[in-house]
């Protein structure tokens, strides 16, 4: 037996953890570059396939780079090194490093992006916010009860302490002293799911990339309905906690590394060395106040 699994072996395990068929129809997941018969000894996990991450992968001697975000989300007619994305492909291929993407299929999987985020912020007894078919373990987001009630301010601080620091930090909307007991989380952009969050009847919603108008309308509606229902403070829920997109998805990388190792072992395959990139690939680098 070889001392290292093949790329095909590793991809088979990754596809078992994050089945490509569970990805959203618009998504682009799976193997982007690499020879299936090549041996894999080192695997780097990262959120974004950007130049700095590729530098890290090649300097470390990775045989495979696994990222959450796709390099090519839309069709392309060229991977010439004269473009910044083509340059990424050429550098990886010429250095013998493959690229594999697990995006929305990793968002919805057990121990995927949503579960990793829910674990960090302390959500127990959870279920998907939007389940796929009748499978209660696979779906977008997670909803559940906090391990203990806390104020919105303290909950937002818990989120800030749990996630990688970014220039944006953590923003929240609602009465800082209000108690929160139930929560929903969605890694990455989540304001398109506001109707599902309202239907879940949670106290607070943690997600990323919240835009002004959807967030404002959600909070105004919540306050109006609370006042109409006879709550004099009119605070209303759900409250909102807004994180940097990169930060909300980064915790999953450690789960992916652990589960790849376990999957290879369960299949009787040789192990690989794994590493989680700690490069902050959030595009924002500072704030001015």
TrEMBL record:
Binding, a divalent metal cation: 68-69, 107, 245, 249
InterPro entries on file: DUF34/NIF3 (IPR002678), DUF34/NIF3_sf (IPR036069)
Domain of life: Bacteria
Keywords per UniProt: Metal-binding
GO molecular function, one term: metal ion binding
Pfam short name (any one): DUF34_NIF3
Cellular component GO terms held in the UniProt record: cytoplasm
Protein family according to the UniProt entry: Belongs to the GTP cyclohydrolase I type 2/NIF3 family.
Subunit record text: Homohexamer.
NCBIfam families hit by this protein: YbgI_SA1388 (TIGR00486)
UniProt name for this protein: GTP cyclohydrolase 1 type 2 homolog
Biological source species: Myceligenerans xiligouense
Origin organism lineage: Bacteria, Bacillati, Actinomycetota, Actinomycetes, Micrococcales
């Amino acid at each position: 037996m070889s001392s290292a699994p093949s790329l095909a072996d590793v991809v088979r395990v990754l596809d078992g953890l994050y089945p490509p068929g569970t990805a959203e129809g618009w998504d682009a997941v799976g193997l982007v570059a690499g020879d299936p018969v090549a041996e894999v000894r080192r695997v780097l996990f990262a959120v974004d396939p950007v130049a700095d991450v590729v530098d890290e992968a090649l300097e470390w001697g990775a045989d495979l780079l696994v990222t959450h975000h796709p390099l090519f989300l839309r069709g392309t007619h060229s991977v010439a090194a004269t473009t910044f994305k083509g340059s990424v492909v050429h550098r990886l291929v010429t250095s013998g490093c493959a690229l594999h993407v697990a995006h929305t299929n990793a968002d919805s999987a057990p121990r995927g992006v949503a579960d990793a985020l829910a674990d960090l912020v302390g959500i127990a007894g959870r279920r998907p916010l939007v389940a796929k078919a009748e499978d209660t373990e696979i779906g977008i987001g997670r909803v559940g009860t906090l391990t203990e009630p806390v104020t919105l301010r303290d909950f937002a601080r818990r989120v800030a302490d749990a996630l990688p620091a970014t220039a944006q930090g953590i923003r929240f909307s609602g009465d800082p002293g209000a108690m929160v007991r139930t929560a929903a989380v969605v890694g990455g952009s989540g304001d398109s799911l506001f109707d599902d969050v309202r239907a879940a009847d949670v106290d607070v919603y943690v997600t990323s990339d919240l835009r002004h108008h959807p967030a404002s309308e959600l909070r105004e509606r919540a306050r109006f309905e609370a006042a109409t229902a006879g709550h004099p403070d009119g605070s209303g829920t759900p409250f909102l906690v807004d994180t940097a997109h990169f930060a909300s998805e980064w915790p999953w990388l450690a789960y992916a590394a652990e589960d790849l190792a376990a999957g290879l072992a369960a299949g009787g395959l040789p192990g690989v060395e794994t590493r989680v990139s700690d490069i902050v690939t959030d595009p924002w680098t500072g704030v001015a106040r």
